[in-house]
Predict the structure.
Amino acid sequence: MLVRERAHAKINLALHVTGRRQDGYHELDSIVAFADVADVLTIAPAGAVSLSISGPFAGDLPGDGENSVTSAWTLLSEYSRQKGAPITPVNFQLEKNLPVASGIGGGSADSAAALRGLIRHFGLGISPDELSELALRLGADVPVCLLQQSSRMRGIGEIIEPVSLELPSAMVLVNPLIPAPTSKVFSSLNLQPGQSFGAGIVNLHDIESWRNDLTAPAVTLVPEIAEVIGSLNFQPEIICSRMSGSGATCFGLFESLGAAQTAAESITQKHPPWWVVATTLLQ
C-alpha cells in the first residue's frame, strides 16, 4: 500500500537561546507553529531502500546516500529488529517544496514524516515516549515536527508542551535562497560550554516580547536576511516579522490572507529570485 505524509514547514515564532550546556548543546526556549506549506513524502513497498526526489528544490538534496528520510528508516529498522519484528525495505518519493537549510525545519519535518509514515505503513506499536526518544536521535527539531502542532519547545528540543496561540493565521514566508547552515549560525553566537545567555520566554501571549536570538549571527553570515525583514516590515497590515530558526527564512504575520497574498505579490515583484509564499498557520 502507499502511505503519504505531509511534512509541514516549522516556524519558530520565538527562539530564545538561554545558554549552552557542558556537552555543547544549546538550551532553547521556543514557540513553534506549523505553516500550511509542506514537503510531501510517499512510501511504497520495495525490494531495497531507495529515495527519489522531485519538486522545486530537488536539486539541492543529494539523490544517493543517507539523508534525513533514509536515516529515519535505518533508525526504525534497528529499533524494530531489536523488538524481534524487523521492517522491510521501502521506496521513498520526496516532493521537495521547502528550501534547504532555510530555518523552517525541512530536513527535520521530512524525518518526522518518514517516522510517521513508516509506523503507519508497518502498523508498528511504539509508545509516545519511545517514539519521542527515537525522534530526538534524528535531530533536536524532529520530536516537535512529529506533532505538527503549536508548541513551546525547551531544552534541546526534548521538552514539548502544546500551546494555544491567539494569533492571526495569515503569514508570508520569504527566503532569499541563500543557505544559512544551522551549525555555523550557532557557532557564530560563540557561547562557551556552561555559559548562560538570554532570558527565556516570559509571556506566552505577548508576541512583541518574543525574539530570535539567532538573527544577529545569521545576518553576519547572510546579510540579505536584514533586507528580507525590511521588505516584510514595509508591507501594509503587517503585524510583526521575524526570522525563523537559524534562517534564512523570515515570516510576517498579517491580519488576513488577502493582505498576506498582496504582500507576497509585492515582494515577489521587487525580488523575483526570492522564495515567497503566502500561507496560513495550522490551527
